[in-house]
Amino acid sequence: MINFEWFRTFKAIYQTGTLTGAAQELLISQPNVSQHLAGLEAYICHPLFERQPRRMVPTDYGKLLYTEVIDAVEKLEKVELDFRNTSAWEVPLTCVGASKEFFQAVIAPRISQSDANFIFEFGDPKALLEKVIRKDMYFTLTTVCGQEKNIVYDPVLEERFVLVGNAGLDDTAFRKAVRKKDNAAAEAWLYDQTWYAYSSDIPPVRRFWQENFHKRPQIKPRFVIPDYDAILKALAAGTGVAIVSDYLVKDYLRRKELKQLWTDAETSSQTIYLAYDKTCVTTRQLQQVKALLHL
């Protein structure tokens, strides 16, 4: 297997013209320089330099090899230098898991204000939490709160699930039924609407129905879209209803693109936690993530 250090040494010899100069540039011994060059020449089966008393003169093979590899060698050296500089600044590279919707609504507007280096990963909250437990990820945002050893769950926000519809939706009959506390009429009106849902098993809808009608819903969503931001955009542009988290829909309500249909309904809620292994994260990483989340 070829060694990258051989190419680095070859470049130094070519540019300085001597073994001694290459050794000084690379901060290694002259015998090591000679060993690297011998290894490279043996690997490509051609002499790269003509040894003269005070100078190493490139052969035609040496000139050809230099032309072919110099760009790649310098790019790799730059990558190495960049990583060293990052370490020198002591700004850790922090991996954070989150739902795409949470990132877009909460983190994206604040990310440019952070001085940290982040890698974000979107995915299923349970799968992301498993990565934290296996020490494959530093942090994740999750609604699941377990009892695993060394895993800390810090509350980030309490989300409530609200019933919303397109701003132009005629909900006169529904508001009248709610005002008269006529649950049967309100439920019948909801059944007549076009429903958008994140998944076919509609857990937020089922919880909403239990809280307000004390029964299971008999709803089959017309549109199942596994992306809440896409659901809200489609709902704002079309017609229908959905049950979504309040922090995701607040901007749509403020812009009057959507409206909340039952403001005094009983609503379910859940806590979003920042989960991390306290034995894996540094104090600075924790401070940077909490600052990003305004904790």
TrEMBL record:
<dbReference type="InterPro" id="IPR000847">
    <property type="entry name" value="LysR_HTH_N"/>
</dbReference>
<dbReference type="InterPro" id="IPR005119">
    <property type="entry name" value="LysR_subst-bd"/>
</dbReference>
<dbReference type="InterPro" id="IPR036390">
    <property type="entry name" value="WH_DNA-bd_sf"/>
</dbReference>
<dbReference type="Pfam" id="PF03466">
    <property type="entry name" value="LysR_substrate"/>
</dbReference>
<keyword id="KW-0238">DNA-binding</keyword>
<keyword id="KW-0805">Transcription regulation</keyword>
<feature type="domain" description="HTH lysR-type">
    <location>
        <begin position="2"/>
        <end position="59"/>
    </location>
</feature>
<dbReference type="GO" id="GO:0000976">
    <property type="term" value="F:transcription cis-regulatory region binding"/>
</dbReference>
<protein>
    <submittedName>
        <fullName>LysR family transcriptional regulator</fullName>
    </submittedName>
</protein>
<comment type="similarity">
    <text>Belongs to the LysR transcriptional regulatory family.</text>
</comment>
<keyword id="KW-0804">Transcription</keyword>
<dbReference type="GO" id="GO:0003700">
    <property type="term" value="F:DNA-binding transcription factor activity"/>
</dbReference>
<dbReference type="InterPro" id="IPR036388">
    <property type="entry name" value="WH-like_DNA-bd_sf"/>
</dbReference>
<dbReference type="Pfam" id="PF00126">
    <property type="entry name" value="HTH_1"/>
</dbReference>
